[in-house]
Design goal:
Elements lengths: L2 H11 L12 E4 L8 E5 L4 H10 L3 E4 L16 H11 L3 E4 L2 H4 L5 H9 L2 E10 L2 E9 L3 H10 L13 E9 L16 E13 L3 H11 L7 E5 L3 E17 L1 H12 L5 E2 L7 E10 L4 H6 L4 E5 L14 E4 L2 H5 L2 H12 L4 E4 L11
Parallel strand pairs: 2-3, 2-15, 3-4, 12-13, 13-14
Antiparallel strand pairs: 1-4, 5-10, 6-8, 6-9, 7-8, 10-12, 11-14
Helix pairs in contact: 1-11, 6-7
Length: 364
């Protein structure tokens, strides 16, 4: 299978446009046109993971964390990323990473954490603004159904759990084509009046090219009139963190024990218990300390994340329990997201989950 096809499946699910500006998701090493027979899925790429890929006959490593974050000006093997690059190239291995783009989508890292904890009604904690666009176009009335179907198929018209959403208004359009035109209706050089339907719908800007291409292909006119407006609405399918509820509230100690069991961690760093049952739970995979105030504002009883600094544990003032379970620990199930996605979309493609524990932090 072409590597480009595998990449297309992942990026249709977690578009690169949703990664943070500091990130480096995407194809890190390799030629997208090469044939791939087997992929190894991991959280991090280490030298041990490279060896594992070679041993199991994989030509592709799919990781959550990119091995290259910062600018590299030389490749001598002095640093960990340089050694990975050298070894991967020697072994003819491709490396692809989906990082914060996988963190920021609704079906990504944080939803997997919510599923493991058994949370109900999971939703984005901090949805983004400015990600939506409104499309307005004008179509001959008897072609409105075809055009609507085409732009819906391209992904437009999704509002929450509803799809194929649009507003339609009947009106009269006018146009006069020059001598060089070949109008669908009317005569060139003469003013024409046409009964038209004004169609309004919304779409995330990441699929704008796809939606406009579908519109132009389905529309009967030589020159298609359409407008695109930026919207300031929140987009509930992309953003940071996630929040949900337990089916039944439980006491703090019992829930902390559940966290330790689910995430297989020996220790949890947390703020002082506040003698309140746990019902509403906020989570953020990886490093989520910048979402502490958002978790408090959302009314969460507890916030689960990693990489919290000492002074940040003071920020809640007894309003919420803050837990740091570790960066690797809260993202360890990300491998399952890749596996489930690719098995669903490419059922005959060979996949293997890495057995190497790449967590660089150890506890004595």
């Amino acid at each position: 299978m072409k590597l480009s096809k595998i990449i297309s499946v992942i990026e249709s699910f977690a578009p690169l446009a949703y990664q943070e500006n500091y990130d480096n998701a995407g194809l890190i090493i390799g030629d997208s046109s090469r044939e791939i027979n087997k992929a190894l899925i991991t959280i991090d790429v280490t030298e041990e993971v490279i060896d594992e890929a070679v041993n199991v006959g994989a030509e592709l490593i799919i990781s959550h964390h990119p091995v290259i974050f910062n600018e590299i000006k030389k490749i001598t093997g002095d640093t960990y990323p340089e050694r990975i690059i050298i070894k991967a190239v020697k072994k003819e291995l491709a490396i692809y990473s989906a990082h914060t783009n996988l963190d920021n989508i609704k079906e990504g890292v944080n939803l997997k954490i919510c599923e493991k904890l058994g949370l109900c009604n999971p939703r984005i904690l901090c949805p983004v603004k400015g990600e939506l666009r409104k499309l307005v176009t004008f179509v001959p009335a008897d072609h409105a159904d075809n055009v609507r179907s085409a732009i819906f198929k391209a992904g437009a018209g999704q509002i929450g759990e509803y799809d194929q959403c649009s507003y339609n208004l009947e009106g009269m359009g006018t146009f006069k084509g020059s001598e060089g035109t070949n109008p669908y209706t009317g005569e060139k050089g003469k003013l024409h009046f046409e009964k038209e339907t004004r169609i309004e719908t919304i779409f995330p800007k990441v699929i704008q090219t796809k939606v406009i291409s579908a519109l132009l292909e389905a529309h009967p006119y030589e020159e298609v009139a359409y407008d695109i407006y930026p919207l300031e609405n929140y987009y509930d399918k992309v953003g940071k963190g996630m929040i949900g509820e337990l089916e039944k509230e439980i006491d703090e100690s019992t829930f902390l024990k559940k966290i330790k069991s689910v995430f297989k961690t020996k220790v949890i760093k947390h703020t002082k218990l506040i003698n309140k049952n746990i019902k509403k739970v906020a989570v953020c995979g990886g490093s989520g300390s910048n979402l502490i105030k958002s978790a408090v504002k959302a009314g969460a009883d507890i916030f689960i994340t990693g990489d919290i600094k000492y002074h940040q544990f003071f920020e809640t003032s007894g309003k919420i329990i803050i837990t740091d379970i570790g960066h690797y620990e809260n993202e360890q199930f990300t491998k399952e997201i890749f596996y489930e996605l690719l098995k669903k979309k490419l059922p005959k493609f060979a996949l293997r989950l890495s057995e190497v524990k790449t967590n660089p932090i150890n506890y004595f």
